[in-house]
Write a sequence for this structure.
């Protein structure tokens, strides 16, 4: 009995791992691109603000943990709803699922459409697309690129395992590009409003502001305005001037940071670019 139970547990863990691991690996890889795109909005790269490989590893790992904490309850709710529906239909739901799994073309078609839909985030990142066009893209890519290969893979156990890996990887890539889209939009929002959203905070974006002073006489620079400290690297501070909508660099040896404030509160309707608008002819 214990051997059967152990085998059942191991089999369950293996099935979960065959789905979760490809998603996590693909999502981790795409998040690296997302961090670069987020800082590119300010005209810098992660290395210029002191975000090296070790820092990126920590940020992306913490992001994956937060996503896991959100995904597990949602998955649990879905499982409970499916179980409840199966009970209410007296097992009809389970029988329907078994029949679908026994028909390779149906399973291949569902997997193909899902993989086609994962491209939504990629296309959405590079342009505005309506729902109808995205449905056409998902169906077209699924039928042309994935349907027949997935059907052929269903013939053998190794092929079915390969299908899970491909679908899991594509799911991670799709989720990753949705996160990239959210990071880019959040960075643009910081440029406009001077405030970072929860998603940017989750990936470790530094929403820290300070008054910049001269190291020689400790007098405020830039008219004493608050500047966002994006980071520091190679003896240089990287600053964002919310009033002029500019990214600046100053040597650390000639710069003092005064009145440092993290995630400051803004009054209602606050926007950046006040001085930039005044200087516009």
């Amino acid at each position: 009995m214990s051997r059967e139970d152990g085998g059942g547990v191991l089999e369950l863990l293996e099935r979960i791992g065959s789905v979760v691991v490809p998603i996590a690996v693909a999502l981790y890889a795409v998040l690296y691109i997302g961090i670069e795109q987020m800082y590119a909005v300010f005209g810098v790269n992660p290395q210029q603000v002191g975000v090296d490989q070790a820092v990126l590893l920590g940020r992306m790992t913490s992001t994956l943990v937060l996503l896991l904490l959100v995904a597990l309850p949602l998955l649990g709710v879905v499982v409970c709803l499916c179980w409840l529906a199966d009970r209410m239909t007296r097992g009809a739901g389970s029988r329907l699922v078994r029949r679908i799994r026994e028909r390779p073309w149906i399973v291949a078609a569902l997997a193909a459409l899902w993989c086609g839909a994962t491209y939504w985030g990629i296309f959405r990142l590079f342009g505005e697309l309506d729902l109808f066009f995205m449905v056409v893209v998902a169906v077209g890519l699924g039928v042309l690129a994935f349907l027949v290969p997935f059907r052929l893979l269903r013939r053998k156990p190794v092929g079915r395992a390969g299908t899970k890996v491909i679908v899991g990887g594509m799911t991670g890539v799709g989720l990753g590009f949705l996160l990239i889209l959210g990071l880019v939009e959040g960075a643009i929002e910081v440029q406009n409003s001077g405030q970072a959203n929860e998603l940017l905070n989750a990936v470790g974006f530094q929403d820290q502001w300070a008054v910049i002073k001269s190291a020689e006489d400790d007098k405020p620079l830039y008219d004493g305005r608050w500047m966002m400290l994006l980071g520091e690297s190679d003896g240089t501070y990287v600053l964002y001037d919310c009033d002029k909508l500019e990214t600046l660099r100053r040597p650390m040896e000639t710069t003092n940071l005064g009145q440092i404030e993290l995630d400051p509160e803004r009054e209602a309707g606050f926007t950046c670019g006040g001085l930039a608008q005044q200087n516009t002819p």
User: Anything to note?
Assistant: The longest strand covers residues 226-233. Strands lie at 208-214, 226-233, 236-241, 246-251, 255-262.
